[in-house]
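Final report, Chapter 2: Outcomes

The project's central promise was a pipeline that accepts a single protein chain and returns its three-dimensional structure in a standardized token representation, suitable for archiving and comparison. That pipeline is now operational. To close this chapter, we reproduce one record exactly as it appears in the project archive, with the input sequence first and the structure output second.
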Amino acid sequence: MSGPAAIVLAAGRSTRYRDAGGPAPTKLVAVWRGRPVVWHVAEAALGSSAHPVVVVTGHAAEAVERALAGLPVRIVHNPGFANGLATSLRAGLEALPPGSGEAVILLGDMPLVDAATIDGLIRAARDDPEVDAAVPVHDGIRGNPVLLRRSLFARAASLRGDEGARRLLRDPALRVIELASLNGAVGFDVDEPDDLAAGLPPALR
């Protein structure tokens, strides 16, 4: 069994962002701190010990690919992205090497998540081989990204609609490690243009 891989989910339709007047075809390619939002997420994954880094595209796929030009990521297109987040999670899992022991699932609209957070999840799972998953927690609330053991891949792939990995981890029968996060990065995502204008969530200013 090989080491952990990373999956960046970057297929969403950005409905709230576009309905609020966002000028980009998707919030993921909106520029924040000099780079597209999704670029920050991919860079964090690439800076961690996870390998390979798979990016799942869907809506505005060409724009997302352009935003990631030059980064050594594997692009996987999900033609069924309109059917919900679960289809992109499934596409990402199916694209992993057969020997991947874990997958760190990242959301493409969370540009403050860093490599240290990803590696913290990986270390926690490595230290306790009996756990099923690892998740960061800030102020008592679980955030993203999440790490899934290979033993959960089939269950994750069976999710439907907008169900994501966090829903799966509500199962009380699973052993889930919760890692305390010192700031709000694991809970900050971009939904509307104002989120980009603000630059940082209140907890990180």
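Archive annotation: The beta strands are 5-10, 31-32, 35-36, 53-57, 74-77, 102-107, 133-138, 141-142, 146-149, 176-180.
This record, like all others produced under the grant, will remain available to the consortium after the project formally closes.
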